[in-house]
């Protein structure tokens, strides 16, 4: 089976930043999962889909949380200013445990990789998935990333968010300490395999943590492309540098 063929049936993991990409007003939260799965199927991807929605869930209405959970979307509570860092931590940990052909997807206005739009995606198809009366036996989990707490009940999660222990944990844990440098454990340059040798490459560069050393020319792109070619990668390279640009010369 070729690499592309294997990816079509491999599992798909999605990380959704609800702060930057909330469900548009007036749309049913139960539409999200079935519409995303339908969109993947149209592209030929039939593997199992896991979705986790990140955000300050104290700000999310109960009917939205209930609708997401009832369709198998996991909900993770984070402090508003640490949502992206917590997502990133989970993403890189998952990536280390799930190499290709497993597929990753990010729902965020910070990464312009997908051309789907919420309104278009949620309007496609028929009526939203109906939840049978009598309970949510297949409900997904609710996670609190600040306290390492999880449960399968919306009421229990709400009680936890209003607890003294939760409030104290969020007050004493600054956002930056929640991001582990798990990429340090990679520390390897993987030679290109045939199915990935010509694929496009996205480089996300944290300039604050990895600035250009003093005395070096900022024209770094040719050196990065050369390093990729030495490993056998010849696909188009896109590089985005993230930082407080007001402090950069």
UniProtKB/TrEMBL annotation:
This is NYN domain-containing protein. The lineage of its organism: Eukaryota, Viridiplantae, Streptophyta, Embryophyta, Tracheophyta. Residues 11-112 form the NYN domain. It holds the Pfam family NYN. It comes from the Eukaryota. InterPro entries: Marf1 (IPR024768), NYN (IPR021139).
């Amino acid at each position: 089976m070729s690499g592309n063929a294997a990816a079509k049936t491999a599992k798909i993991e999605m990380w959704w930043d609800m702060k930057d990409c909330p469900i548009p007003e007036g749309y049913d939260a139960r539409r999200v999962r079935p519409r995303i799965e339908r969109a993947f199927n149209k592209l030929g991807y039939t593997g199992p889909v896991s979705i986790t929605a990140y955000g300050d869930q104290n700000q999310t209405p109960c009917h939205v949380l209930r609708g997401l959970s009832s369709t198998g979307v996991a909900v993770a509570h984070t402090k508003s200013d640490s949502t992206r860092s917590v997502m990133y931590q989970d993403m890189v940990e998952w990536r280390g445990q799930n190499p290709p052909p497993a597929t990753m997807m990010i729902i965020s206005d910070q990464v312009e990789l997908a051309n789907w739009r919420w309104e278009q995606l949620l309007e496609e198809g028929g009526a939203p998935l109906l939840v049978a009366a009598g309970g949510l036996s297949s409900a997904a989990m609710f996670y609190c990333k600040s306290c390492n707490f999880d449960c399968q009940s919306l009421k229990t999660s709400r009680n936890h968010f209003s607890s003294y222990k939760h409030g104290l944990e969020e007050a004493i844990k600054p956002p930056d300490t929640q991001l582990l440098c798990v990429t340090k454990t990679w520390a390897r340059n993987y030679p290109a395999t045939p199915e990935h040798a010509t694929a496009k490459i996205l480089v996300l560069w944290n300039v604050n943590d990895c600035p250009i050393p003093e005395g070096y020319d900022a024209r770094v792109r040719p050196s990065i492309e050369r390093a990729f070619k030495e490993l056998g990668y010849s696909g188009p390279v896109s590089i985005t540098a993230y930082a407080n640009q007001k402090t950069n010369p």
